[in-house]
């Protein structure tokens, strides 16, 4: 007889990593010491792994709104929106979000995960869902819950998707679902391409704006605004736990669709509603998002500095154009060791390993927020470089040239950013190639590298080569041994 708990007894990956001293998850933060520093294991550590991109979760206006809401409405509504958990505050947030996102209507649910699960109410048996392979786990789970056919296309491969759509049953209901900005790579979906395909094949397009709404676009309406394809996107989902510094999820789109979801989305109907403090915090955050666009630009400036500072040292930071800076490591065990040594250097980031990323593509996800200083950003770069050299991830001596990247700033960026006049990006003088969303990969010579590596022009220090050579043997249990979760679980 099979005991369903057998697999738990046989689950070794966790203990192996703990024994090797390289387990990177569930690491408790004892305290927040400032907007960017935390106390971990009794030490002051620089936070470079938060999704609070605009730095609003501790903003005085947001905290005070949350505190007032708790005093007035209590800690929870202890009931579902449908029955007894709706406050006028929820309705206020919904109308504010609908106006902000320029959608007919919006509905607020308790988490971003639940917002994505809610879309399962819109499709079912006989329908076909076309999904990017790198979509967030919650979008994949929504398709499985719905019973619709799940057709996954290779990450970002719009041509392949086009062929899949052309081959699909013309009578079937069709929907394309994608992250706007992908949560591990920070790269953007080709929304213009996807919107054109959706139009051509009579499919709907649903976009999860978790990592881009609040951050990208002139008004902060995310990747659809950035690409000027908002009319081609039928429904957006958003989490309030990132740019909005709170907790919660949102779906925004046509009024009739939102009304339908209010009565059919099981993750909404059968779950306690978003607590008052989080509703009030999100409203206060939205006030700031609308009033202070410079926060968005600051994050993108810092992220660009982080990217280029790391690239100048020889790191591969992928194709991100957002606040997510993926530092590609490759081997899983090496990635876990990197994470551990980075923490020892006083920087907390995120280790992303399979199944959250493809086998052999483990990475350290580094993020900065609007609250980080340029000096802190430089410290993050230096700490990564120290560990990278020690573990042989980067060469002992920085390369002579590197490919500089530019972030997805709005097409019409404001004249001044963070109180200073915006300078043209030095990388534009280099050789460039165009990718989705703008100029990427400007090849810079070494001296230009120094000028553009960091926002404040701080020069990356050249350390002496360290004895650890590239390709050093990782500790026991490399590769697959450190799959902490099953294939369908994504650690994001
Ligand atoms: C793209 C994306 N969508 C949805 C979610 C889920 O949001 P929440 O954490 O609010 O449940 C996340 C969170 O990691 C995410 O990255």
Question: Would you give an account of this structure?
Answer:
With 492 residues, the protein is of the alpha/beta class. It folds into 2 domains: 10-47 and 294-482, Aspartate Aminotransferase, domain 1, CATH 3.90.1150; 60-291, Aspartate Aminotransferase, domain 2 (3-Layer(aba) Sandwich). 34% of the residues lie in helices and 17% in strands. It has helices at residues 6-9, 13-20, 60-73, 88-101, 112-118, 137-146, 158-167, 191-201, 223-226, 255-264, 266-269, 276-291, 294-312, 332-344, 374-390, 446-452; strands at residues 31-32, 37-40, 43-47, 105-109, 128-132, 149-153, 174-179, 204-208, 235-239, 249-253, 324-330, 347-348, 350-352, 362-367, 402-404, 416-417, 420-421, 431-435, 438-444. Strands 4-10-9-8-7-5-6 form a 7-stranded mixed beta sheet, sandwiched between helices. A 4-stranded mixed beta sheet has the order 1-2-3-12. Helix 4 packs parallel to helix 12 (276-291), helix 5 packs parallel to helix 6 (137-146) and helix 13 packs antiparallel against helix 16 (446-452). The chain is globular, with a radius of gyration of 22 Å. The two termini are 35 Å apart.
Give a quick summary of the entry.
The chain has 492 residues and is of the alpha/beta class. It has two domains: 227 residues, Aspartate Aminotransferase, domain 1; 232 residues, Aspartate Aminotransferase, domain 2.
Low-confidence stretches: 413-441, 446-452, 455-481, 487-492
How many distinct beta strands?
A: 19
The shape is globular
Q: Provide the structure class.
A: alpha/beta
State the name of the first-level CATH class of the largest domain: Alpha Beta
What's the architecture of the largest domain in CATH terms?
A: 3-Layer(aba) Sandwich
């Amino acid at each position: 007889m099979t005991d369903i708990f057998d697999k738990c007894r046989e689950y070794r990956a966790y203990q192996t990593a703990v024994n090797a001293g390289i387990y990177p998850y569930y690491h408790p933060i004892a305290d927040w010491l400032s907007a960017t520093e935390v106390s971990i294991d009794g030490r002051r550590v620089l936070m470079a792994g938060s999704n609070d991109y605009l730095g609003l979760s501790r903003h005085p206006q947001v905290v005070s709104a949350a505190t007032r809401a708790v005093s007035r409405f209590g800690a929870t509504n202890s009931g579902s929106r449908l029955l007894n958990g709706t406050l006028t505050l929820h309705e206020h947030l919904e109308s504010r979000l609908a106006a902000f996102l320029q959608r007919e209507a919006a509905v607020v649910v308790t988490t971003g995960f639940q917002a994505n699960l809610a879309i399962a109410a819109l499709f079912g048996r006989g329908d076909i869902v076309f999904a990017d392979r790198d979509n967030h786990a919650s979008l994949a789970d929504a398709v499985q819950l719905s019973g619709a056919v799940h057709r996954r296309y290779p990450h970002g491969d719009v041509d392949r998707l086009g062929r899949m759509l052309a081959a699909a049953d013309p009578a079937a209901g069709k929907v394309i679902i994608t992250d706007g900005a992908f949560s591990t790579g920070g790269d953007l979906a080709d929304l213009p391409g996807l919107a054109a395909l959706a139009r051509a094949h009579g499919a709907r397009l649903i976009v999860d704006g978790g990592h881009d709404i609040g951050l990208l676009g002139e008004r902060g309406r995310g990747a659809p605004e950035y690409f000027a394809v908002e009319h081609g996107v039928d429904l957006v989902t958003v989490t309030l736990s990132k740019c909005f510094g709170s907790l919660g999820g949102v779906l925004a789109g046509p009024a009739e669709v939102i009304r339908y979801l209010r009565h059919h989305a099981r993750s909404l109907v059968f779950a306690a509603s978003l607590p008052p403090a989080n509703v009030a915090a999100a409203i206060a955050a939205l006030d700031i998002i609308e009033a202070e666009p410079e926060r968005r630009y600051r994050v993108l400036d810092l992220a660009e500095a982080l990217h280029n500072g790391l690239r100048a040292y020889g790191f591969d930071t992928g194709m991100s154009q957002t606040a997510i800076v993926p530092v590609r490591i490759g081997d899983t065990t090496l990635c876990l060791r990197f994470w551990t040594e980075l923490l020892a250097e006083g920087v907390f980031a995120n280790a992303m390993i399979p199944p959250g990323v493809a086998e052999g593509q483990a990475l350290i996800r580094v993020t900065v927020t609007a609250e980080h200083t340029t000096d802190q950003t430089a410290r993050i770069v230096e700490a990564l470089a120290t560990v990278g050299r020690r573990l042989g991830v980067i060469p002992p001596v920085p390369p002579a040239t590197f490919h500089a990247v530019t972030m997805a700033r709005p097409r019409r960026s404001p004249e001044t950013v963070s109180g200073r006049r915006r300078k043209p990006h030095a990388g534009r003088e280099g050789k460039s190639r165009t990718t989705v969303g703008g100029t990427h990969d400007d090849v810079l010579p070494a001296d230009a590298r120094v000028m553009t590596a960091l926002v404040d022009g701080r020069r990356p220090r050249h350390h002496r080569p360290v004895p650890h050579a590239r390709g050093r043997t990782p500790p026991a249990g490399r590769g697959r041994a450190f799959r902490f979760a099953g294939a369908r679980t994504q650690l994001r």
